[in-house]
């Protein structure tokens, strides 16, 4: 089976723009709202969302990176361990509205771990989840995004890859691919 | 690389440079964790760790215990002074009895070099060497090199002098291995009687004059005089040792550069190190203690994640 382009230029930029408009509708001037990009791949989307929101609203918006590696429920159950990434949250989330941002929503377990990891930084007033791509019919826990870029039907032997321009790889533009895993 | 190449931490000699870098990168994230208001993660919640100490220890044992608790592990503590070892039980029997209680990891300190290596051949649990006689003390070397990396940005290319009782020091040997694997230059300095005969075969520089050693190095790691391991006189008196090998502010002021001062603790103040240096800006001794918890968390976490 061929790899399939799910979102390319300019659809991906339009989708991110639409997600930002939805966020503005619910959070207005973002005075009490912060963004948290989930490590490792959600941070690239979070940076683009922050950039677009700031250009739409003209205000500075807090963005942090959250790594949930130490809170995962599959430690010692995977073939290879997940490498920890940096958590960087330079602001308080106590009493704030938090928007968790990830590129792909699959089983929901990473988001569950992220919710646990977040408790070390305070008790937010409200938590919402934004995902660029949702893989249908795959969730293991009762968690689902509030803001969705695109829903796709996938098989277990496929994965969704979000490529970001200037990410260190030789990628000319932002793309979302449906990849067939080897084996 | 996301996984250690070994199931046990028996010594630095068994680690690859990639293993050490992975431990450092993981420790960076744990250091962030232990500086949060909630200093705990649930990673090892289904793991039981036995701290088996056949030799006295204060800071290493405390540091391991704190690291284990921060990772949510269950802990059993064993010390030989109040155990069946006193009744003649062998090391293997003692540990097997502990393992029968379904223990997943053993952190062990023992007076005999090679004790953890022996144990690793006979039991299935992960073993962490917390010091085996005068042989190795790998987690101390890891936290020392991690502290150098933190202060100076990198270990590669740095000149590190290890000063003092090299002969009886497991810290010295582990540090030599770790520093060399990370690309640092190493010098040992001490009285001739406290330098092992074949130390230069490890590829280290040897210097008898402490001032020359300090002039040469970027980092001075000053070791404790281990009176408890010295059964004969290696130098005339502590006073004389302090006079010739003690590091003090006057000595550091006489250099034409700043150096970083380290000590694995506990310090014999006024013998190998004076308070005017130990408590100065140059010293990163308390950073070493803080980093010890983060590094040990990283070691335990990574060993626990090694595929069985």
UniProtKB/TrEMBL annotation, chain A:
InterPro entries found in the cross-reference section: PRTase-like (IPR029057), PRTase_dom (IPR000836), PyrR_bifunctional (IPR050137)
Pfam families to which the protein is assigned, alphabetical: Pribosyltran
Domain of life, source organism: Bacteria
Phosphoribosyltransferase domain: residues covered: 7-160
Protein name: PyrR protein
Organism: Roseivirga misakiensis
TrEMBL record, chain B:
Keyword Cytoplasm among UniProt keywords: no
Catalytic function, reaction form: carbamoyl phosphate + L-aspartate = N-carbamoyl-L-aspartate + phosphate + H(+)
First-tier enzyme category under EC: transferase
Residue ranges annotated for the Aspartate/ornithine carbamoyltransferase carbamoyl-P binding domain, each copy included: 7-150
One GO term of the biological process aspect: amino acid metabolic process
Enzyme Commission numbers on file: 2.1.3.2
Domain Aspartate/ornithine carbamoyltransferase Asp/Orn-binding: 157-303
Pathway where it operates: Pyrimidine metabolism; UMP biosynthesis via de novo pathway; (S)-dihydroorotate from bicarbonate: step 2/3
Binding positions (carbamoyl phosphate): 59-60, 109, 137, 140, 265-266
This protein's UniProt keywords: Pyrimidine biosynthesis, Transferase
Transmembrane regions: none
One annotated GO molecular function: amino acid binding
UniProt-annotated binding residues for L-aspartate: 87, 170, 224
Main function: Catalyzes the condensation of carbamoyl phosphate and aspartate to form carbamoyl aspartate and inorganic phosphate, the committed step in the de novo pyrimidine nucleotide biosynthesis pathway.
SUBUNIT field: Heterododecamer (2C3:3R2) of six catalytic PyrB chains organized as two trimers (C3), and six regulatory PyrI chains organized as three dimers (R2).
PANTHER family in alphabetical order: ASPARTATE CARBAMOYLTRANSFERASE, ORNITHINE CARBAMOYLTRANSFERASE, MITOCHONDRIAL
Entry's family note: Belongs to the aspartate/ornithine carbamoyltransferase superfamily. ATCase family.
Name of this protein: Aspartate carbamoyltransferase
Species name: Roseivirga misakiensis
Lineage: Bacteria, Pseudomonadati, Bacteroidota, Cytophagia, Cytophagales
């Amino acid at each position: 089976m061929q790899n399939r382009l799910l979102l390319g230029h300019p659809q991906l930029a339009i989708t991110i723009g639409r997600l930002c408009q939805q966020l503005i509708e619910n959070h207005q001037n973002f005075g009490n709202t912060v963004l948290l990009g989930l490590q490792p791949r959600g941070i690239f989307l979070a940076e683009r969302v922050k950039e677009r929101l700031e250009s739409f609203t003209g205000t500075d918006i807090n963005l942090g990176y959250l790594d949930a590696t130490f809170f995962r429920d599959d430690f010692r159950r995977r073939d290879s361990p997940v490498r920890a990434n940096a958590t960087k949250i330079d602001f308080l989330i106590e009493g704030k509205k938090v928007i968790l941002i990830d590129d792909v929503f699959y089983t929901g377990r990473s988001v569950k771990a992220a919710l646990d990891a977040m408790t070390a930084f305070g008790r937010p007033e409200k938590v919402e989840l934004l995902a660029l791509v949702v893989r249908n019919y795959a969730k293991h826990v009762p968690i689902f995004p509030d803001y969705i870029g695109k829903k796709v039907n996938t098989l277990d032997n496929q994965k969704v890859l979000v490529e970001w321009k200037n990410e260190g790889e030789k990628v000319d533009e932002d793309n979302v691919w449906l990849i067939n895993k080897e084996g | 690389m996301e996984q250690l190449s070994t199931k046990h931490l028996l010594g630095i000699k068994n680690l690859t440079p990639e293993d050490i870098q992975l431990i450092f990168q993981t420790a960076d994230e744990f250091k962030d964790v232990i500086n949060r208001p909630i200093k705990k993660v649930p990673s090892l919640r289904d793991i039981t760790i036995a701290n088996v100490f056949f030799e006295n220890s204060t800071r290493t044992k405390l540091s391991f215990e704190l690291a284990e608790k921060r990772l949510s592990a269950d802990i059993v503590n064993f010390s030989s002074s109040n155990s069946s070892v006193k009744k003649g039980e062998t090391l293997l029997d003692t540990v097997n009895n502990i393992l029968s209680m379904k223990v997943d990891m053993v952190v062990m300190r023992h007076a005999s070099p090679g004790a953890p290596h022996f144990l690793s051949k006979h039991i299935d649990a992960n073993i962490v060497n917390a010091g085996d006689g005068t042989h190795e003390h790998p987690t101390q070397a890891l936290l020392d090199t991690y502290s150098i990396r933190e202060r100076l940005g990198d270990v590669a290319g740095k000149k590190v002098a290890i000063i003092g009782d090299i002969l009886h020091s497991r810290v010295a040997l582990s540090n030599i291995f770790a520093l060399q694997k990370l690309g640092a230059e190493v010098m040992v300095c001490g009285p001739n009687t406290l330098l092992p005969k074949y130390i230069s075969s490890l590829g280290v520089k040897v210097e008898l004059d402490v001032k020359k050693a300090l002039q040469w190095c970027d980092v001075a790691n000053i070791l404790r005089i281990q009176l408890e391991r010295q059964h004969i006189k290696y130098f005339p008196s502590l006073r004389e040792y302090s006079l010739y090998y003690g590091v003090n502010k006057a000595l550091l002021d006489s250099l034409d550069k700043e150096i970083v001062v380290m000590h694995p603790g506990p310090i014999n103040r006024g013998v190998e190190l004076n308070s005017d240096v130990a408590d100065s800006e140059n010293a990163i001794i308390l950073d070493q203690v803080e980093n010890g918890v983060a590094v040990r968390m990283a070691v335990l976490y990574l060993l626990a994640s090694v595929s069985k």
